[in-house]
TrEMBL record:
Bilayer topology: Multi-pass membrane protein
Stretches that traverse the bilayer: 40-59, 66-87, 107-124, 131-154, 160-182
Primary residence: membrane
Top-level taxon: Bacteria
Protein name per Swiss-Prot or TrEMBL: Acetate uptake transporter
UniProt keyword annotations, A-Z: Membrane, Transmembrane, Transmembrane helix
Record carries keyword Transmembrane: yes
Length: 202
């Protein structure tokens, strides 16, 4: 009996994942910059664009055996689910007992863990494209700002660092989303993403 392997081809999910990242960071940065107030209407975008859109991209990257893409999109999808749940707890959705027993420094350590995660992913991004590398560097600065401000270190300046980093993440992620869609759609380099650095891979 002859064994046959069937390979199911799927489209690159990077465009959707980057669009999800762009949308949630745009809305979230507006709150950090003081342009908007509260997190009530940031929450839906955190759950559906930051969470589910990136989780969808993660699952499809995993099917394509793209370990880097699956880990990146999956890690940040779970981050936004965690942040969304944090906001629900802070606003008393799960009851007053939880909301009254918050130690905000625990969130600071979670941000610190994601800084470590992002530093590792930044190294990996050097062999993807330069736009993605810039996005990861900006996410590094976002988590530096979030970690330090939440832990009470230079709170105002670190909050501003996080806010502006998040805004620029959104700008570059919108560009990355557009490039991934249009380059694939036109089957040519319509918007350049920049070649890998070629340091770790030749």
């Amino acid at each position: 009996m002859e064994n046959k392997q069937i390979k199911i081809a799927t489209a690159d999910p990077s465009a959707l994942g980057l669009f999800g990242l762009a949308m949630v960071t745009l809305v979230a940065s507006s709150q950090k910059l003081g342009i908007t107030n509260g997190v009530s209407l940031v929450l839906p975008w955190a759950i559906f664009l930051g969470g589910f859109a990136q989780l969808f991209a993660c699952i499809h990257d995993a099917r394509k055996q793209n370990v880097f893409g699956a880990t990146a999109f999956g890690g940040y999808a779970l981050f936004w689910f965690g942040v969304g749940t944090t906001w629900l707890i802070q606003n008393g959705v799960f009851g007053s007992t939880l909301s009254k027993s918050i130690d905000i420094k625990q969130l600071g350590f979670a941000f610190l863990g994601y800084l470590i995660f992002t530093l590792v992913m930044t190294v990996g991004s050097m062999e993807t494209n330069k736009v993605l590398f810039i996005i990861f560097v900006l996410i590094d600065f976002l988590f530096i700002g979030l970690s330090l401000s939440t832990l009470g270190i230079a709170e105002h300046s670190m909050h501003l660092l996080a806010a502006y980093s998040e805004l620029f993440i959104s700008i570059f992620a919108f560009y990355g989303f557009a490039a991934n869609v249009l380059n694939a759609h036109f089957n040519k380099v319509f918007l350049p993403l920049g070649k890998p650095f070629g340091i770790f891979k030749k």
